[in-house]
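## Example record

The block below lists the input lines for one assembly entry, exactly as stored, with component labels intact.
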Amino acid sequence: MNRCCRHMPKLCRHFPVTDHRLLKKKLERSDGLQKERVNMDAMEAIFTRRSTRRMKPELPPKELIDKVIEAGRMAPSGSNSQTTHMIVITNKEVLSKLAAVVQDAFAAMEVGPDAYVSLRNSVNAAKKGNYVFHYGAPVLIVTANKKGYGNAIADSACALENMMIAANALDLGSCWINQLHWLDENENVRVCMEALGLEQDETITGGLILGYGYDGRPVRSELKRTGNPVTYVDDNNSVQA
Ligand SMILES: Cc1cc2nc3c(=O)[nH]c(=O)nc-3n(C[C@H](O)[C@H](O)[C@H](O)COP(=O)(O)O)c2cc1C
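Predicted structure tokens for the full assembly:
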């Protein structure tokens, strides 16, 4: 299988969606170090994943990017719908153009003190100028899904989390990037994204950046989870229904 995604032909190098078995073969053929990285334990990859925002401008090899995308495509989806669309942007001109469009969109926005803190921060930074929502990373993966599909965000989140964990296992940094989702209905963003392959019946559900950390390694320092409460209901609990 070597299906092609729907990109703007002028800007896109015809990014192929590769069969993961072929990709696995390719990685097996590469050097021992890379093989070791691919075999990182799943729990270790989950527990050491952190958001990496400062990245080298250097583009990771295509085999590694493809492997991350394949991990996203292997994610579960509601009713096995498999409608999460991943738009993989590595074109520097396009990345700069998107940053400018996002900056202009946020700079024109007024938000009150009750607005979601990250949105408020983005708007304030954009008004000051030089706001680059993707931190100048070499790869931006935008996820989209069918408008009106009830599992659109959930399916995309499964794909994004798979990709972030796979990136860590491959020694790549990643960070969820949500600005294009917030601006999904902005006309300039839609024009830009539709030129890059977003379908008219799709909504932007999220995205992530990918690349080598500025020192060559992804961020892996521990960030303790003090939230995310857990409630166990087991045989020792007496529950009055
Ligand atoms: C739904 C979602 C949206 C996020 N949006 C952004 C974003 O737009 N920009 C950003 O720098 N980080 C973003 N993040 C990353 C979070 O800030 C980060 O996951 C959180 O601070 C925990 O840190 P960790 O990922 O290093 O464990 C987002 C994370 C999630 C799950």
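The pocket of flavin mononucleotide is lined by residues 50-51, 53, 175-179, 223 (CB under 6 Å). Confidence is low (pLDDT under 50) at residues 1-27, 33-37.
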